Amino acid sequence: MSHQPLRSIAVVLPLLLLAACGEEVRDSTTRGVTPQADAIDGLFRFSVTLGAVIWLLVMGLLAVPIWRSWRRRGGDAEVAPTDRGPVRLDAPASEVDGAIAVADPTHVAQAEADHRVRNRLIWVGGIILPALVLVTLLVYSSVVGRAAAHVPEDGELVVDVIGHMFWWEVIYEDEAVITANEIVVPVDRPVRFNLTTEDVIHSFWIPRIHGKVDMIPGRTNTFTFTATETGDFRGNCAEFCGIAHAQMVAFVRVVEQDEFDAWVAAQQQPATTGASTDGEQVFIEAGCAACHAVAGTDAVARVGPDLTHLASRRTLAAGIVPNERERLEQLIIEPQAVKPGIPMPAAQLSADELEALLDYLEGLE
Ligand code: CUA
């Protein structure tokens, strides 16, 4: 017999446990960094615990009759004659053990008592208990739903997040900042997300920040949260929206207020175009500008992500690859290899044009 499966478990299990102990937890439904995520986690834990208690109770109740019948059969085996043979239908009552037993008044009383117990079990276990459990869960989830919904607060930062196939547009209206896929917010300050979509239904979900909220065409869904910890928190689209649905990653980066102010000030600047004017020309002429905007240039399209400060982002293609020159190059000349399903055509460029374009994009700090 092969020990391969056992060996695999022996290797994988400790690795999983080690991974679970890792310091950096970027997405976890059970380690919230906002009161809203904690409330949702509380409901989850309560439901799981309640479910476990009910399961144990049902298993216990199931074990009782099994045990009883097992005991009865054991008892019968000791006293019952083994050569009784089949009972004839025309046999006199005195010959039939069962008929004599039914006539016995103690057996009748016992049967009635069993019937009453069974009735009570159906009422309590089948009607009253499930009703109580469902009402409790309904009330608790309503309380959590209220706690996690949008509650207007003074001084909240408003961020519009718009779902696209397959990336996230991020607009800070009051700050006049447009970015994509990486949302920077300050710690200990209420933040309101207005969520909608440009095309199909998406669902915005950063597990450590908040529960899933759908992005529905023609509608704006809203929630508020206050992050109590700084860090990078990862999320994903949670509603199937097409071929690259699983590769529609978003990050919420929670930073100190000073750092946030500095980030906003940097994002408000027009693009640093001094890096490569040749590259800017390639960008405009090769067709990039048909979909992307770069503030301060002739590129103003909003079909794809705004690239004004592309170099300040950590990832490319909605969080799936690190923002490095080789990845950027691959994304430009072979986008389907980086992210199958991405609605971005491969650019036809000479080697010189490609180098100039990469220099330009890498200069967009
Ligand atoms: Cu967007 Cu799934």
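^ dinuclear copper ion complex. Residues 35-79 form the longest helix (45 residues). The pocket of dinuclear copper ion is lined by residues 163, 166, 202, 237, 239-241, 245, 248 (CB under 6 Å).
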